[in-house]
């Protein structure tokens, strides 16, 4: 998944600063916090696509998430999460995310793949992938 990928391979970028509270007993950013970084970055796409965050109407729901940890991340650090839609199905799509230290945008710290379902919260069922997502996928 990381072969020949750097920040320039991702159309969407989100800058995040690590926080003191992100650290674990080993003095590096805790692995669980990486999910929060990826979630924060993914939230910018919700805004881009004008999708609600309140659990009503048509929005998105996470079906699965994988994270591959490649390097330790120390605090303080400025990171950049690169995102792109890398697969689209009928009612779901995948967002590939790479986390980079801003001092090294050639070599990711971690990689992630999140499967997301387009979902009608009012009727509690999946719906076809939204046009604004298809537009970003095909861009």
CATH topology value: Thiol Ester Dehydrase, Chain A
Question: Which class in CATH terms?
Answer: Alpha Beta
Query: Which structural class should the secondary elements be placed in?
Result: alpha+beta
Q: Compute the gyration radius: what is it?
A: 16 Å
Into which percent range does the helicity of residues fall? 10-25%
| Contiguous uncertain segments of 5+ residues | none
Distance between the termini: 21 Å
CATH homologous superfamily annotation: Hotdog Thioesterase
Annotate the secondary structure layout:
Layout: E1 12-17, H1 31-48, E2 58-69, E3 78-88, E4 92-101, E5 110-120, E6 125-126, H2 131-138
Antiparallel strand pairs: 1-3, 2-5, 3-4, 4-5, 5-6
Short description:
This protein is of the alpha+beta class and about 140 residues long. About 20% of the residues lie in helices and about 35% in strands.
Task: Explain this structure.
The protein is built from two helices and six strands. It has a single domain, classed as Hotdog Thioesterase (Thiol Ester Dehydrase, Chain A, Roll). Strands 1, 2, 3, 4, 5 and 6 form a six-stranded antiparallel β-sheet that branches. The two termini are 21 Å apart. With 139 residues, the chain is an alpha+beta fold. The relative contact order is 0.25.
